[in-house]
Specification:
Length: 231
């Protein structure tokens, strides 16, 4: 666009001039101040070009943003119902998995208890048999056999079918249930201290509102200096 080339021709000389600015004297300070005004004027031209040109024109940026918002809203109108459907079905499938896992765990515990009982009964039988034997060698053999009796480890698989492309996983998560208790523990435990985040933006707002006339332990309020250039 020709207009963009025009803006470039107006802005580039200002950028080139910045390289020659040196503030080493009062005269240089004054020249730098005048240059800042030129910079602000150039910024105003750029903002004017990309912003509204008239009361009826909302500007290039605003038009592009409005178009982007419309596209995003349209996309969202399709995606949200699909995401809700995905979440709903996933919850149903996870519920079924939990139910089958509970059933498998209960069956495994039942079968393991039966296996343990059979092993204990066999140990008792061998011990009684050893007590009846009169030969020390045979007694030792039965005692050894009794000691080696172990119940097999029972494993029961769930009935959840394996489906290509579908997988589930378990993951540990964390939730703050008592913030004060955690903060008290973090005071004496450096391993926990790293999880404590201080809201510096909120502290800056306090500093601006009170002009630093407050005292928070461990916080220093100070006045920073900056410079503004008018157009």
């Amino acid at each position: 666009m020709q207009e963009i080339e025009t803006i470039k021709q107006q802005v580039n000389p200002v950028l080139v001039q910045e390289r020659s600015i040196a503030v080493t004297s009062a005269e240089g300070y004054g020249l730098a101040a005048e240059f800042l005004k030129e910079v602000k004027a150039a910024q105003k031209k750029v903002i004017g070009f990309f912003g509204p040109r008239s009361d009826k024109d909302i500007g290039i940026k605003a038009k592009a943003h409005e178009a982007w918002k419309s596209i995003v809203a349209l996309e969202k109108s399709f995606l949200d119902p699909l995401k809700n459907a995905e979440t709903s079905v996933k919850q149903k499938m996870l519920g079924y998995q939990r139910q089958e896992n509970r059933k498998a765990a209960a069956e495994q515990a039942r079968l393991q208890a039966e296996a343990d009982a059979r092993a204990e009964k066999e140990r008792e039988r061998l011990l009684k048999e050893a007590a009846k034997l009169k030969t020390p060698e045979l007694q030792e053999q039965r005692l050894q056999e009794a000691e080696e009796v172990e119940a097999p480890v029972i494993t029961v698989q769930t009935e959840v079918p394996k489906v290509d492309g579908i997988s589930s996983r378990r993951a540990w998560k964390a939730e703050v249930v008592n913030k004060l208790a955690f903060l008290e523990a973090a005071i004496n435990d450096q391993n926990l201290f790293g999880f404590v985040i201080i809201d510096e933006k909120a502290l800056i707002r306090v500093a601006q509102a009170t002009k630093g006339q407050v005292n928070y332990p461990g916080i220093e309020f100070y006045e920073a200096e900056s410079m503004a250039a008018g157009r």
